[in-house]
Amino acid sequence: YAINVLCNNDLFVENSTFHNNGRAISSRGRVSLQNNLFIQNGDLLIAFGGEWIIRYNTMADNMGSALIIYEDINCFVQTTVLLEGNIIWLNNASFIGVPDPTCTNNPMAVPYYQITLTASIFQNYAEHLDDPLFAFLAPVYDVDPLFVGNGSYQLRLPSVAVDGVPQGVTGVPFDIVGTTRPQDGDSDGVARFDMGAYETLP
Asked: Where are the alpha helices (H) located in the chain, listed in sequence order?
C-alpha cells in the first residue's frame, strides 16, 4: 500500500500475501504505471481515490480483478483512471467498482470514479458499455491479443495489438525490455505503437 506510486518497466508476479488478497498495488494517491507486466497475481490494482495513469501495460492471467475501485471512506475523493495502450486479458474480472454504503447519506458532488479507456484490449468491456462513468475512446477491442505463449507475453501477428495504437496518441519511447517505440511491427510501412508492455519488431 502506498500514497504515490511510479512504476516503469517492472514485473509483478505471484503477489499473494497482502491481506490474503494478493494485491500488486494499492493506493489512494497519484499512481503512474507504464510498460509493466502483471501476471499471476491476485487482485491487481486497488484504488481508494486519486489519479491513476495506466499506459502500455500487459495485465494477464491474474486470479483476481485487474482493477478494483473502492469509494473513498471520506466520501469526497474521486478516483480518475486513464487506461491507454493496455492489454487486459484473461483475468478473473476486468473491473469492479465498490461503493461505500456509509457514503449513501453523504453523496459526492461528482461520481466516485471516472475511467477513460482508449487504444486497448479490454476483456469483457461490453459489460461496461452502459456505465456512464466509463468514457470509451476507440479503438477498444475485446479480442485475443495473440500472445506468443509458453510464458511469453510478447505479441504475434496478426494481433490487433501490433501497431494497434492510432497515430497521434502519445506513446512511451521504449518497451519493457528496452526496444525503441514505435516500430512497424506489421510491416505496412507505418510505425505505430503496440498495445501492451512489448513492442513487436518488423
From this structure: none
